[in-house]
Each structure stands twice: as structure tokens, then as C-alpha cells.
Amino acid sequence: VNDSVEKYFTHSAEGGGAGWGMTVAKMDISAADLFTELYLLDTYAKRAESKDKIREVFESLDGTRGQQISKTVSVPGFQDRLFESWMTWVDRVKADGHRKFIIAIAPLGEFAGTHHEVLGTEKTTKATFRGVHIVEEFTDSTCEWTWVQQVDLKISIHARLLDIAARQNLAWANELQEKFRLNGKEVDRD
């Protein structure tokens, strides 16, 4: 797939550390494999590539498919931000037989079940993240990925700095698209 990644980001005109972003990308990977890449966060590779000071994943919360992820993000010039989120997912088969995966992410406080304590978070400021990943199958080896997110750093920050941070975060979609790019022969075969 050579289509570009569509991206959108906005924040309040008054400044502050909150904003909304959306990414839409066509991907050269099966919907099931992209779902796995997005949802399985506690792998050796994911731990090795993480630059977070704190990053803990707790799976199967209360026997459900939900998981807790607690991670810090450094904001230069400010105290680190702690994001504690709850993630869950659903797999649907559409009328045309193609699969659609939906991953929902909400602040951990919105999950009524168990909340695991993470050591070393005393000197952080809690921030919030909400999001949804929608992965829709086109063929056995291509899909469309829509990612909508809202973040609140709980900080008063200049809009320009928030734009820079958002661009870096949204660039992840380009990195994933490039990681899974097929060569032309493989695409033609599909």
C-alpha cells in the first residue's frame, strides 16, 4: 500500500495540555496481525523498545480480556506524567465476511475492577488518555487502521509544544505502515 497516512490533530485555542488526534492508514498486514501488534503490549520486543521509565502491563484483569497499562512519559521541563489505562477489545465479522477489531482504551479509573499498584509513581503527575483503534480487514493481507485518541497531560503548555508532541506521536502510524509494507509482487498476488 503506497497510500499516505491521514492525520489530524487539534487542541483548545486557550492552550493547555489536552488535545485530540486521529490517524487513518491503509496497511499491508492482515487485520488479525495488526490487532496483535496493537494489543499485545507485554512482549519481550515491546519491553526492549520502550524508553519509558515506568512501563507495567497487567493482563486478564479480573478474568476478562481487559488489561491495565501503566506508563510514564517524560515532558521536558515538567514532572513525568503517569498514564494508567484500561484496554479491552472486541472482534466482529461484518456482513461481507471481513473482520473488524476494535480496541478501546480508557483511564483506569473507569474500570470497576482491580487496579494494580505500580511502584515508583509517587513523583509523577497523573495524566489521562482515551482512544480507540479500529482495524478493518480488506483482504487476507491488507487492512485499514483508524486510531482516534485524546490526551490530557494535566499541564499548562504552549500550543506549539503540544503540536510537536502530537506530531511525534502521530508519526507512529507512518512507522507501522513502513514496518509492514509489502513489495509490489506480494501486493499483486493478493
Helicity range: 10-25%
Please compute the radius of gyration using only Cα atoms: 18 Å
What fraction of residues sit in β-strands? 35-45%
Question: Helices and strands: which structural class?
Answer: alpha+beta
What shape does the CA trace take? globular
Low-confidence stretches: none
Total E-strand runs: 8
- Tally the helices: 4
Span between termini: 12 Å
- SSE run: EEHHEEEEEEHH
Q: Profile the largest sheet.
A: 8 strands, mixed
Average predicted local confidence, pLDDT:
84
Task: Please give a structural write-up.
The protein is α+β, with helices and mostly antiparallel strands. Helices cover 22% and strands 39% of the residues. Strands 1, 2, 3, 4, 5, 6, 7 and 8 form an 8-stranded mixed sheet that branches. A hairpin with a 7-residue loop joins strand 4 and strand 5. The longest helix has 21 residues.
Short description:
The protein has 190 residues and is of the alpha+beta class. It has helices at 31-39, 44-49, 159-179, 184-189, and strands spanning 6-11, 18-27, 55-58, 67-73, 81-93, 99-107, 125-139, 142-152.
